[in-house]
Amino acid sequence: MRLLFSILFLPFFAAAQNISVSLNSNWQFRQAGKKTWNNATVPGTTHTDLLANKLIPDPYFRDNENKLQWVDKTDWDYKKNFNVDSFTFSKKNIELVFDGLDTYADVFLNGKLILQAENMFRQYIVPVKLLLKKNNNELFIHFSSAKNKVDSIAKSRLPLVLPDNNRVYVRKAQYHFGWDWGPKFVGCGIWKAVNIQGWDDFIIKGQQCIFLRQSHDTSFYKVKLKIFAATKTKAALIMNRLTESGGYSIFPPFSAIDSNFGQKTGTDLVTAALDLKKGFNDIVVYPKISTSVIWNPDVSRNVYSMTCTIFNNTNYASTVFQTAARKVELVQQRDSIGTSFYFKINGQPVFMKGANYIPSDVFLPTVKKEDYRKILQSAKDANMNMLRVWGGGVYEADEFYDLCDSMGIMVWQDLMFAGGMYPADEHFTNNVHEEIKYQIERLRNHPCIVLWCGNNEIDEAWHNWGWQEQFNLHGNDSAKIWNDYKKLFEDSLKQWVTEYDGTRPYISSSPKNGWGHKESLTEGDSHYWGLWWGLEDWEVFETKTGRFVSEYGMQSMPDMNTIKKFTDDSDRYLYSPVIQSHQKANEGFNKLNYYLNKYFIDSSRLATKALTSKANNVQSGLTINFEDYIYLTQCLQYYILKNSIAIHRSKQPNTMGTLLWQLNDCWPVASWSITDYSRAPKAAWYAVKEAYRDDVLPVRDSIYPKDLKLKQPVFTIQISGDEISISSDVFSKYVYLDAGQTGYTFSDNYFDLQPGETKIIKYNKIIAREEVAGNINIKIKSLYDVINK
What we know:
It contains 17 helices and 41 strands. It is α+β, with helices and mostly antiparallel strands.
């Protein structure tokens, strides 16, 4: 079906369209109470603004984290002066749109308080037509210290203390308060865009106001639209699929669209006559969608782009949204083992191979689209098909989900609650409700998202981590906290997810049971931390692999080239105060050393005591130098993850998923990540890439590396263009190529080399934090070179 459009109406509609103007430029900031203003960047954070003005040192360098805690305890002011163009000023309705304020923010326009924000995860829209001037408007935002706020709230609740941190009182990225892989930079700022939007009769307020739903059998679709009208009015709707030639940009005369126009549908096209009432209008239309646009992560990752336009005689509003048709099920059925836990996509069971994703920086606005592309490409290149967006971070940027849609990476989406007992009073719950409504409506059109999960590890923590004794929670206090948990995660969030989405499964917590309980192996998902925290061997997975292993892992040090970026020469020894400050895990080095002793090194060569001086790293029995130690920890992570994944995959169909902890880092640190902060792969990334291949199942190692009888290799290397040719005269284990600087990546690394074998390695520059300079200068190391010194 086609409609005939007249080009004569194009100039009229161009003058009548709704408009959005960015207010991101020309901001200033200051420490509250001070006179001096400095330039600020929006989107940005207080820390990045201070750094750009050279008012603080690099927060990630050496132990500067400890020196910058004053920033979190300070209030900050931001301001901007702006004019409004005549076209925008003429609109009947004008609103300020704040996509992200972090977090406690009092907003003033021309001296009038217009907003008190208190949730980093919400969008705030404020009508300002009556306050706005055409020239010389001042927008002023006062940010109160989130650290001071939560401490004050917690103090007011005494003697009741909520586990595990006062952070639970604020709707803000929880990892900003510190984690076992991240620093403590609480901060504040305008972390997302600020816009002014003008409109006349009606408006479609963002992509979150459009939602394509499909029936259970994927053959029937409906689109739900939410349109806000300033007054009662008649209008018309045209919705069509965008193709390479574009969608409809001009419309028929409104006078030709009367009650007989009705709702008409053709393939990828819908038209309808609308009677809009004042306020919000919920509109439902039923499109016919081409069968060629079914989204399948392994086969066809078609994304369905549609333009939706509402118009009448005087005004039109238009938006473009993307979605796709696909069916997702989480199958939890009783069986001979316990209860299954696996995903069906378009009716087919899928074994999930992937990792947990944390925010890619502490200072979130520094993460750009090219960073997301690099990070997600590393997941795709490692043969992953799922990422779990962890609940202590943030609901990620639109670009993240767009890329997952196009790459066929499925997303397990935690809601932003982690590792603590949250209040459930009316004010907090209402705040969370608005957050969940906004975020689910914003994200629900992305086919990549296949699960909503209420929180990370809270159910397990309450029952297994000893919080009742630690925080003196007994009797009524204990009952109230657990009832609040159930109210929020088992009742309210489940209800809201169903209301605002209803097309995906919801689980209240991950994991269902703690790793110390037998039920964690027979039902639900499992965070198995017997490996690492329990000092168990990787072989434990032979008898303790759950139905879906959604967390497990092994630490390693970051690459030496990354370490050089945040240290001085005097810091580069175990266990210097600076190196210790970039290891956040409790007993982290002791656990690393335990596993190194077990699998790689004779214990007499590796001490667990902290060194008190550099002394060439030889003290208390330690004879492994710093660079070799880094290399060995990366080999250890490679070895552990390769063999763990091999066992997990061998357990199909009883086990149907393995998500390692973790894909990425938010700053330079010793962690469980398989890529470090430079975005370059660690050794384990190469192991995971092989272990997750579809064409062959990985094989477990039959010999602990320290039992290998290795001989000293002689390597032959040739470099031609972007290729490196390498061979060895004897068997070589964990052959490591080092370019001597960050910014290079290799097609393979930490590989085994058979005698006489010639291996071709490709190398290229990656997107790095700074420009890569100079020619490549390859250094080579193998396991023999370290353990036989």
